[in-house]
Amino acid sequence: MAISGNPTGDGWSSRSAFILAAIGAAVGLGNLWRFPTLAGENGGGAFVIVYIGCVVLLGLPLLLAEIFIGRAGQTDAVGSIRKVAQVSRVSHAWALFGGLGALAAFLIVSFYSVVAGWVLYYVGVFAGDFAQALAAGDPFRGALQGETQEQIAGRMSDLFDSPWLLLSMHLVFMGATLFIVARGISGGIEKAATWLMPAFFALLISITIYGAVVGDVGEAAAFLFTPDWSKLDARVMNEALGQALFSLSLGVAGIITYGSYIREGTRLGPTTFAIGLADTAVALVAGLMIFPIVFAVGLDPAAGPTLVFQTLPFAFEAMPAGALVGLLFFVLVLVAAITSSISLLEVPTAWAIGELGWSRRRAALTFGAGAFAIGVACLLGYNVWSDVRPLGFWSIFAETDILDTIDGFTGKIMLPLGALCTSLFVGWRADRRLTEQTTGLSRPMFMLWRFLLAWLCPLAVAAILLFGLFPKLL
Ligand code: PFF
What is 15-473's CATH number? Predict the structure, then answer.
């Protein structure tokens, strides 16, 4: 039953290093940008409650299943699944879903880096503004003084109209991601996580306290936690489920890959719980950080994807110390984004190291450059190629630009497919003794986990997949 160690010889130096890195992977633009956007658009409370239900009943079991595959396989996602299949005496063809995951992670990091580039641009805007405030001897003034709401919103259009600006931001962000991944696990990814995650939490807590002091936290909490069940329909449930998978980094083999670097003797149950709890707490706190500020200025919580980039900067204009807090806010989002993008690039990188025998440098450079190129196509989709609809023949993608097509294709199809395969493979095919031994769960917890994984996850995830493909069914 024993399975050999990770062939790269690299790995996390401790259990807490793994937890920190996995939290870094999970906490990203999904928590700080997508979650508040979706909660805002879908009426708050009902969405949030369904989301939490999805995390507990589906997310946690799937998270443990991915960590299990990585821990048991001790190599890249494809190799790990193959090893578990071998021990379990089932077809090696299951390893294909590891490849699918690696492809999905590669595609996601290409547009993830473009969006993170927007964040980087706003870091620049707010850094410049704060520098001016300092120079004027008024460091605690609001942000972007004297600009109208249209002018502030216009900063986003200026960015989108400029391929060069978008490209430079994307280049810097992808370059940083590549640099960290090329340095390996203990010397690169772990180091980044141990420096950046404490900074992330310190910023998150500070800005949330700020929001509570200057904003309307009561209204925000009521908005986020009072369920209006009339808003709840199949589409909202579908969104909540998809968001839970994305936020926990499931279905793209990222957690399998990170799990493969865990050293012997780590208790996987509490580890899974810690990661799931932290990710969900950050999403909720992000809501409690953003909405009090939005409500304090009487703005619309349902602004959609521009909530963070247009609504919030305008709110910072009216807030005390808005220039400083705005800067800190975008630094916070940037930190969250980079600890996630490195985990995405690590998936295809580990695959090429494990399956093709490439050096880490070569693998990281190849996939980093490839994802950069796809990202360039995404950002050109906002200006030069704004008419291009890559999957325009398919009704669900008929109206979507290049970035949204890749986002939609990965999120609605590849990610649920990966999660479906994971639940079927671990829930039905993986050797029971191996799963029991590797996870180290108590009997009742093991039974509960297997039940949720084998029955609830496949059904619910198949539903996301079906509705993603055929929205008319809803
Ligand atoms: N979980 C990340 C987020 O919420 O932003 C996105 C992500 C990262 C998805 C890594 C998948 C992954 F492997």
Answer: 1.20.1740
Q: What is the C-alpha to C-alpha distance for residues 45 and 215, in angstroms, rounded to an integer?
A: 19
Q: Is the CB of 340 under 6 A from ligand 1?
A: yes
- What are the sequence ranges of the domains in the chain? 15-473
pLDDT tens column, 98-123:
999 999 999 999 999 999 999 999 99
* 5 pLDDT more than 70: no
Structure letter (DSSP) for residue 430? S
Residues 6+ apart with CB under 8 A from 135: none
**Residue 253 alpha carbon, nearest atom of ligand 1:** 13
Cα of 214 from ligand 1 centre, angstroms = 31
- Tokens representing 280 are 């969900």
Q: Is 343 in the pocket of ligand 1 (CB under 6 A)?
A: yes
pLDDT at 348 over 70: yes
62 within ligand 1 shell (Cβ under 6 A): no
ipTM of the predicted assembly exceeds 0.85 = yes
Binding site membership of 28 for ligand 1 (Cβ less than 6 Å): yes
